[in-house]
Amino acid sequence: MDTHKTVEHWQELSREAMQGMMSWREEHPKASLGEIEKTLDGHIMKLRAQMLEDAAQLSEMREWSQSAAVPICPDCKAALEFRIKGKRELQTQGGYSIRLERDYGICPSCGQGFFPPG
Ligand SMILES: [Zn+2]
Q1: Separation of 81 CA from ligand 1 center, angstroms?
Q2: Which of 9, 40, 114, 115 could make an SS bond with 105 (beta carbons 3.0 to 4.6 A apart)?
Q3: CA neighbor of 116 nearest in space, from 76, 64, 81
Q4: How far is the CA of 102 from the centre of ligand 1 (A)?
Q5: How many CB atoms lie within 10 A of CB 80?
């Protein structure tokens, strides 16, 4: 993943969130502080989930490409085989779900599947 492109993507997402917040404010000139705060939280949480997803992908790539140690099955102590791409869905604060695409390890001995920690 290109980190520079990721930052540009975040800037774009931030701009959308800020503009969305301002449009909402203009459409709700009489909104209470509580309503404004709730709407702002919604925008921030959405942005947060998107950034978290992107940032998590970066650490995974590092983890797999630079890790010297091959993870092993805790039961059989056999080196896991990493042929399968899996998608893991995680819930974040604010109720947004993010999907992480990651290498998925299979134990050649017992067939258990593992995602790397994190
Ligand atoms: Zn095993």
Answers
A1: 11
A2: 114
A3: 64
A4: 20
A5: 21
